Amino acid sequence: MYQSKITGTGKYHPEKVLTNDDLSKMVDTSDEWIIQRTGIKERRQSDLTKDEFPSGMAYHSAKEAIENAGLEPNDIEMIVFSVTLPDMLFPNTASCLQDKLGITNKCACIDVNAACTGWVYGMTMANSLIQTGVYKNILVVGTEMTSTFNNWEDRSTCVLFGDGSGSVVLSRADDNDTAKIYDSVLSSDSSKLDALILPNGGSKSPVTAEILEKREQYMSMDGQVIFKNAVKTMSSHCATLLKRNNLTLDDIDWFIPHQANLRIIETTGQLLKCPPEKVIVNVEKYANTSSASIPAALHEAVIDGRIKRGQKLLFAAFGAGLTSGAMLLEF
Ligand code: COA
Description:
Elements: E1 4-12, E2 17-19, H1 20-24, H2 31-38, E3 42-44, H3 54-68, E4 78-82, H4 93-101, E5 108-112, H5 118-131, E6 137-145, H6 155-158, E7 163-172, E8 180-188, E9 196-197, H7 209-213, E10 220-221, H8 223-244, E11 254-257, H9 262-272, H10 283-286, H11 293-303, E12 312-319, E13 323-330
Parallel strand pairs: 4-5, 4-6, 11-12
Antiparallel strand pairs: 1-7, 2-3, 6-7, 8-13, 9-10, 12-13
Bound molecules: coenzyme A (COA).
């Protein structure tokens, strides 16, 4: 069996900043409420005239990740693209990204939708394909344009989300390399499908004039159900990974949880007994960018020098489904 390692990272966030004060002019909310309940100060919003839809944002993060890996676009043998609301229903967003990157080798392209957990699902699938020798270099992208399904008239959800992209190149490690993916765990609890849902716009319920009239083309959420399940599932998945790899939190250099909101991040850290100084947080700048949040936070911490080769990292994510996943690796 081969081992895989992260050889390159990249990220992209749209230029346009939407602050809490901007939102308080759109809905009945305040900077104080948003910061107290979520830790979020601002988020980025896509501009379609600047190609800031999923494949357009991913072009920038993927290009950076491929360059940082020391590779050329045509070295990529597969694109795994985590996205909740794709560019279009088909062709898939991974194929659109292949085109944008100028990849002419006809590499495999697949979209993954596991909501905010999608990138951890994609990494787990990519790792298996590298471990079994099928591919040597896989681009794993998480990119989300949450502003499309955000109801900008619903203060209980619109303050939480932002747009962005994060990419990683996962490559076959050299024989003498210690970097590897140790383990991952994935799950989904379908008993709570309604807790975070966008029921309209798919095959089951196409958008009609009536749906538009009632503004039901947007997501809805039971925030407290999501909160409780997020902290419970992410902490228990991390504990499972540590236990079955005979490690403790003392062995972990950095914990990168899904950047949903600061209270979820802090509570998950407390349940895990993870010292706050080991937790990577950037939710205050970008809000919840769904499956883009972990790869983008990873890239920031690699670029600013916090994350170094040889360190052990723990990722944990949670989202609609209710999906959840965690991954343990040496960078
Ligand atoms: N500004 C001001 N007031 C708001 C508001 C906003 N943006 N959003 C909701 N409120 C109000 C509610 O209407 C309610 O008012 P009421 O008491 O008069 O009815 C009050 O604030 C409390 O609302 P509640 O929903 O009980 O707040 P909460 O403490 O559960 O916090 C969340 C709400 C959304 C921040 C919290 O539930 C949460 O973080 N959930 C997880 C969400 C998430 O991360 N989802 C994505 C996962 S991938």
